[in-house]
Each structure stands twice: as structure tokens, then as C-alpha cells.
Design a protein that fits this description.
This protein is an alpha+beta fold. Helix content is 19%, strand content 21%. The protein contains twelve helices and 19 strands. The chain has helices at 40-49, 75-86, 112-115, 117-123, 185-189, 216-220, 242-245, 262-265, 292-299, 326-333, 337-345, 349-354; strands at 2-6, 11-15, 24-31, 62-66, 93-94, 106-107, 172-176, 195-197, 204-206, 227-229, 234-236, 272-278, 304-305, 316-319, 367-371, 375-382, 388-394, 397-401, 407-412. The strands form eight sheets. A four-stranded mixed β-sheet has the order 12-3-14-13. It has a three-stranded antiparallel β-sheet with strand order 15-18-19. The longest helix is centred in the N-terminal third of the chain and has 12 residues, at 75-86. It is globular.
């Protein structure tokens, strides 16, 4: 085991391989507040990559209803319970001392790699704590769909109406695909060295010729995104649509600029923003506040990693839902939840403009610029903390640029409206 630095945990941790980092890292931000669970992203992925024999149960992209949903069922609850058993009452975050390389404080508990040390010394077979789901647990990509939790208040009781920041009953949609982690558990666990990160973009792939279907990757991945194909007898997983990242689509990208993955570009609710972030040889994110992913994740910290305590340093980030109990969200996204929701509940001028870039173009945006516009509104907002603030809204224009520096989108904060003439064919 080597020692590597995990900035999401704010400390070093054990990992089976030495530090090695790509030039760029595939990353994405999902805005949970906007998702309508239409499953358009799920079907876009399914129809592109997983329609063959043996892939019937494979949903590389899925949208599940929390708190009860999951694919496979209970994937997170089971692993959280296993970690708690290995380290009773020790899975906690410590302090609020934050620095650029530890923005969420320090996680004092055990990661899946730390927790596997005892098992590794016994039989040498486990590099990361995990389990292989049963066939029943793979039966549905969104079991318990829209099943709510919470205490239902009777009429006449205070808080009967649904009010933010928390509804009286609640559920939310969680959008998931492979996080293409910085320290992938699937890669760490593979005895065949069949799994690797691409040096040009950090996408995690399985070498189909080397894989022998031992399912160590399925067991080790805390998010359960590698899946075993019983027909070919090898494992498969999300490939981040790397031909699109490479700009191989001559119709949508004649200049070979990187395109968003299929699940991203098909999103109806405009909740998805995909990007590539520049990394140093030491694995740090190169400071670039004009990159929308960097801006949301590292500059404003409004987008948070999914279960950072697992220790894989996932590269998928989420803007948490405002109406969900904070303790549940803190368990899922770490201690940055409060600050993230406060910002999103009343975004300032710059953040509001950047939020317009979600699903605005199929090309990956590497840089943005904001052209200031006139003030169009001022509203009073009550933040989840109870503080009241006045939010000024400006009709700014935000421009997005691709890898080649070409402007690929220009959009205003205020959506334009169009009034049809009375002589229109569909007018009454």
C-alpha cells in the first residue's frame, strides 16, 4: 500500500498504487434541484452502449429515487454499514479548519482501502472493502421510485404545507454514472491489471482482452458501476463516451473539439454540465476559475462529491437538493452541504450566470466569460439558515468557449420571450 493525498478527505490515505495522474480529468456537475427523472439520459446511454445480449440488466447511467431507491438496491446503505462495522463510531469529519487542498475539513474515519487492510493481511484477496450484489439487487434501475420519507403532519399542525428548506415528506432523484475516480477501487482490486486511467483525460476503462471476469472490480467499486456480462464473461462499465471526448463526431464537431457524453447532451431538465479540468503531476487541479467545472467545485464549492468518505476521490459532483434533511445530505456529500445550499438558494451575479451553461451546448466548455447587463429584478430570499437577503438579478450574457477557444454558446440570464402575431395559423 502506498500513501496518496486525497483533497476531498483533507489528508493522506492508503492506496494500492503509487501516485499517477492524467493531464486532464473528465469531470461533471449535476444539479439535483432540477432533475425530473424523465430517464432520457438513461435511455440515451442504453440505446448507445448497452443494447446487446448479456447487457440486459446493465444501466451504466441510471437515475434513482432516494432515500429508498438504488441500483443495485441498497448499494450505499450496505457499504456504509460495512464501514461502520469496521470502525464503530469513527466515521466522522473533524473540525472546520479548511485550506485550498482540504476544503471540507478532514475525514478521520476509514476509507474502503483502509478498512480492507485487515482482510488483505488474512488472505490477500481484498484491496478495497466491498461486496458483490445479488441478482435480485440488480433487478431494477430505480426500485421504490418516488417513495418518500418523513413524518406526515396533519392539517392544522404547524408546517403542514410544503415549505423550503425542508418538505414534511421528501425524496429526491440521484443521477449516477461512473465517477472515473482519481483513485479507482475497481483499478486497485483488479488482479489482472485490466483496468486503467487514460493519461489524456482520466477516463477509467477496462481492457476487454485482459479481463477474465473475476468480478473483483464489481466487488470493490463502492458505487457499483462495473458490471459483469454473463454472455461474454468479462466486466464492462461506462466509458464516458470517449469517442465524443476525442471529437470523433465529424457532424457535431467538425473541428474535433471535445463533445459531451450522450447522457449529458440528452438531458431534458438541463441539470448536467460536463467538463475537463487540468491537473498537475501531483494530482492537484490547476487553478482556473474561468473553467465552469473548476468554478463550481473548487472556487465556489457549490457542487460536492458523492460519498467522499469512501476514499476514491470521485470526479462526479452534485449541487445538493434544498428540501432534504441536512444530516442525510451530509452523510451523502460531506460537511460542505450547508454552504453549498446557502449559495444555491440565493446565487450571486456570477454564480447565476454560470448556472445558465448547464446543457447549453453539446461541446465541452473549457472557459466562460460574462458580459454584464442591466438590472432586471430584486427579490428578497430567506436562506435555509433563516437569514434574509436581497438578491439582485442582472440580465448578464455568459459566453462559453470550447478547447480551441471558439465561442460555442452565448446565453442570457433572462430567458427571451416571443409574442406571435394575431394572424398566426394556430392563433384563436
Amino acid at each position: 500500500m502506498a500513501n496518496v493525498y486525497n483533497w476531498q478527505l483533507g489528508r493522506e490515505m492508503s492506496y494500492p498504487h503509487e501516485e499517477a495522474h492524467p493531464q486532464w480529468q473528465f469531470a461533471f456537475v449535476f444539479n439535483i434541484n432540477r432533475c425530473i427523472a424523465c430517464q432520457t439520459c438513461t435511455m440515451a446511454c442504453k440505446s448507445t452502449w448497452t443494447f446487446a445480449r448479456g447487457q440486459e440488466f446493465m444501466w451504466w447511467n441510471n437515475v434513482e429515487s432516494k432515500p429508498y431507491g438504488g441500483y443495485p438496491q441498497n448499494w450505499d446503505a450496505k457499504l456504509l454499514a460495512m464501514l461502520e462495522k469496521e470502525n464503530p463510531n469513527g466515521q466522522v469529519w473533524k473540525g472546520k479548519k479548511k485550506a485550498p487542498e482540504s476544503p471540507y475539513g478532514e475525514f478521520k474515519g476509514k476509507t474502503i482501502f483502509d478498512a480492507a487492510k485487515n482482510h488483505l493481511s488474512k488472505d490477500g484477496s481484498m484491496r478495497a472493502l466491498g461486496y458483490i450484489p445479488t441478482e435480485e439487487e440488480w433487478q431494477s434501475p430505480n426500485i421504490h421510485e418516488e417513495t418518500a420519507a418523513g413524518k406526515i403532519r396533519e392539517k392544522g399542525q404547524w408546517g403542514y404545507s410544503a415549505e423550503l428548506p425542508e418538505h414534511r415528506v421528501w425524496f429526491f432523484y440521484l443521477q449516477r454514472l461512473c465517477n472515473h475516480c482519481t483513485y479507482p477501487a475497481c483499478l486497485a482490486a483488479c488482479p489482472r491489471n485490466a483496468i486503467y486511467k487514460r493519461p489524456e483525460d482520466g477516463i477509467v476503462l477496462i481492457d476487454q482482452e485482459r479481463c477474465r471476469g473475476y468480478r473483483k472490480c464489481v466487488q470493490a467499486c463502492p458505487y457499483k458501476k462495473p458490471m459483469y456480462n454473463s454472455t461474454t464473461r468479462i466486466s464492462e462499465k461506462c466509458i464516458a463516451c470517449f469517442p465524443r471526448i476525442e471529437g470523433k463526431d465529424k457532424i457535431l464537431s467538425p473541428d474535433e473539439a471535445p463533445l459531451e457524453a450522450r447522457c449529458m447532451s440528452a438531458c431534458v431538465g438541463k441539470i448536467r454540465l460536463q467538463g475537463l479540468v487540468k491537473k498537475t503531476d501531483q494530482g492537484k487541479w490547476t487553478k482556473n476559475p474561468d473553467n465552469p467545472i473548476y468554478f463550481l467545485v473548487r472556487e465556489r464549492k457549490v457542487a460536492l462529491p458523492l460519498y467522499p468518505q469512501f476514499g476514491t476521490e470521485p470526479n462526479g459532483y452534485y449541487i445538493p437538493p434544498r428540501w432534504v434533511p441536512r444530516n442525510y445530505l451530509t452523510q451523502m456529500f460531506g460537511p460542505g452541504v450547508g454552504d453549498a445550499i446557502e449559495q444555491y438558494s440565493s446565487p450571486d451575479r456570477e454564480l447565476l450566470a454560470v448556472l445558465q451553461l448547464f446543457r447549453a451546448t453539446q461541446q465541452v466548455i473549457f472557459k466562460f466569460k460574462i458580459k454584464k447587463g442591466k438590472k432586471v429584478a430584486e427579490v428578497e430570499n430567506t436562506l435555509p439558515s433563516g437569514k434574509r437577503v436581497a438578491q439582485e438579478i442582472f440580465n448578464d450574457t455568459i459566453m462559453g468557449y470550447n478547447k480551441l477557444g471558439k465561442e460555442v454558446v452565448s446565453i442570457t440570464v433572462e430567458e427571451p420571450t416571443f409574442e406571435r402575431s394575431k394572424c398566426h395559423v394556430n392563433s384563436i
